Amino acid sequence: MSERPKAVVLLSGGLDSTTTLAIAKAQEFDVHALTFAYGQRHQAELDAARRVAARLGTAQHIVAQIDLRLFGGSALTSDIELPKGRKPEDMAHGIPCYPLPARNTIFLSFALAWAEVLEADNIFIGVNAIDYSGYPDCRPEFIEAYQHMADLATRAGVEGRQRLMIHTPLIRLTKADIIRKGLELGVDYALTSSCYDPSPEGTACGRCDSCLIRLKGFSEVGLQDPISYRLEG
Prior knowledge:
Blueprint (H helix, E strand, L loop, with lengths): L5 E5 L4 H12 L3 E8 L6 H13 L3 E6 L22 H4 L11 H16 L3 E3 L15 H14 L1 H4 L6 E3 L7 H10 L24 H13 L12
Parallel strand pairs: 1-2, 1-4, 2-3, 4-5
């Protein structure tokens, strides 16, 4: 039986969540990774999450099946056209059409439920408020509010047996800083997938917001991104 503190780590298979998992491992947490099959249009991120969990090593990796297609409202789960080729200044203002409605509220709620069952006091999430494209629930204000709610939401918390801590180690880092941190920890970013619109084979489009932010990060580090991109006209 491990004596290390347990942590639930939200793992999408992308660059940020993979780096976050590596940080939790480096801090000697007993990592339980949680991934969501939420009805996304592609399987690339699920495949990436499984690769990452296997390579980095976790005590447990669960892929939770939830169907957010029922609600619609996101280009990630419907036939709404994804914006591509946006400029950095466009990404920095306004909320685009592709975020899942209440995404991190939903995902953190599942993580909170699992943490209570595991008697884990720690949840890691790779939100970032610097190089991102308008997600309202990646901001520090949201995490602080959720932390307060979590303290009131579980029996263990109300009884004083659990003091949950939501860790956001990337929230103030640029994408380049995140990549540098991951490389220091030995992360193989070739395992990851960040694209919102990959090919059926998992090749990244290179033009969606996530690809552009990722490519910018690697460029600022002075390295070539190890994943493959398809050429689009």
